[in-house]
Amino acid sequence: MDEVAGAIADPVRREILLMLRGEPMTAGQVADRFAISRPAVSRHLRVLREAGLVRGTADGRRRVYELVTGPLDELAGWLETLRRPAGWQQHLDALETEVYRTRRERRDVPVAEKESA
After folding, report:
1. For the whole model, what pTM was predicted?
2. CA distances from 95 to 31, 91, 98, 100, 102 (A)
3. Known CDD domains for this protein (predicted)?
4. Nearest alpha carbon to residue 68 among 89, 51, 92
């Protein structure tokens, strides 16, 4: 997860991932969309490949890159834990739900049943 987070920390690499989301591209096609040198783009692609976020396959003399989203799942799961209530808040939320459910059930009990109880 740390390697994936490090790979997507750079804005150029995030842009590359967005470009590959639509379709596989050659390294040259990726490089043509940036004002940085081809070797710099190649280094960015290497970082993404080592993190498992892109897959490069040989097509003759060209290398075609495609997006691999699987490694993002662990990171996305961890980020989701930050959005969920932590500790007691989750338990208090469950208790509140139970209190409202119990009140609703008592309110819905017919009067004859209430008197006999």
Report:
1. 0.66
2. 55, 6, 5, 9, 10
3. HTH_ARSR
4. 51
